[in-house]
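Quick board copy: two proteins, each given as sequence then tokens.
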Amino acid sequence: MRSRWIFLTFALATAAICGRLGLWQLSRLSERRHDNAIARRALAAPPVTLPGGATPLPGLRISATGSFDHDHELVLRGRAHHGAPGVEIATPLRLRGSDSALIVVRGFVPSDDAMSVDLSALREPGELSVHGIAFAVSEEADSGAPVTHLGTMSWRRLDLGALRHRVPYPVHAVALWQEKESGMSGMPIRLGAPELSDGPHLNYAIQWFAFAVIFLVGGIVFTFRRPLPPAPSLRADSPSPQPPPPVGGGGAQ
């Protein structure tokens, strides 16, 4: 019986942990919905035009005019789109009439090794206008050292600090997810900003609560179930079973 109480204690503790993890996922879901509501309000605001007096903030729509500095663009490795491996191209946009630049994540390019790409085929010369959604870039992106493979230097993620050491002009603290517009070239594939969604938190919460119920109910059932009766045993002094009489047997003639 002691082993059953030990198992019940373990089951209850595990159920409590799973329940707590489910509540944590619901908390994450609430935070995400709150952030999405803020993002939707920002998207509803008038777009910020660059160059201009307004400061670009994360979540705002941006319309920027300038020319791409392809000599200092970054290749972001290890990306995927619809299951295909590839890279993303992040290029500084030298703003017209300004000494600063805005990093524009132009889009996705398929790559078999998700590292190397022919950048010469992706150039967009001349002055142009780009539109998209601004997002914050950490100064400590922890992108690690760049990797050079087949002539392409790639980075694990957008590293604003490293980029500021490489370019001879100021760079804004936000970057831009460029949106697709008519007349654009097919490459890079303009993905735009990630969709606002609840993410996987609700599904994870349901899974953790299901685990909690399984451990709780299973522990109680196992602990308080009625023990099975012992199986009958054959004793040495018990009478041996007699063979059945022959069927239809006649007497001696």
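And the next:
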Amino acid sequence: ENRYLPEARFVFKSWLDAKGEIELVRAPIGDWLRHEENRYLPEASFVFKSWLDAKGEIELVRAPIGDWLRHEENGYLPEANFVFKSWLQAGGPFAEVRGPVLEWVKSHGMDQDAVYLLKYVAKQGDLPRDVAVQVLSWCRKFAKDPDAIWRLTTLTKQLDPKLAREALEASEAVLETLLLKMDLQGITRSQITALLGDLSNLEDLRAGSMSKRLYILVRRWIDHPQSFEPGHWHGSHHQTRQFLETCLTVVESEDKQRSNVTHLVGWVLSWKESSRVECSDLFKRLLAQMRSAI
């Protein structure tokens, strides 16, 4: 009867964490989880995590995890984060934990440890408003976290226009840190361009009362010594007339020191031919700005 004791969870966890042979504990863990007094324990989360982290098959814990998450307040516990993370890392479908995950984010989404879970949440195209706001708020609060730009750009590419202000505030915080760096990785440079392109797609930012704040960010990026890498992969989804118009609005509105648009010109020259042809009139204006600055 030892395998049914609640305390047996310590044995299972220690064995699996020490990389013991999972075959020796597969049946006992299955029996332990089928026991109602065990499978609903808050501490059962550590058995789920250890099993999945040890590469144990998902099927053994699929139903017990579902039951555990639905039982009372288990899905809201801080340690539920470890269950979600291990489930997703093991290849478990997000759809099967979506409801509990979104509820957990509402309660704990401002914890820095939520960063991994937000990676999956930000990818969802139909997020409730309060959850999307939570992701943006996390990015603003932890703007210096290396993952902040990843979470932000993942979300903004499919953002509800009604969240324009929240997206701008998060972007200002994240870019304030990044734009001070003079040596940026290629992927980070592309993310900055993509983020500004995403913001430019939001009408409230491009033409509304917050446009000046957007233009300040765009100007700072244009002036950055590593902006707009010349390559077809750089900001590929924003090699568009609309984004180039935004950049031109910034450049042409300057009445004092002109921006160095050399990098921007180089990037546009790397676009596919059809995109360049579509924007040929804008490109001529951009070249005129470059010549006037010489």
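Board note added afterward: The chain has a mean pLDDT of 92.
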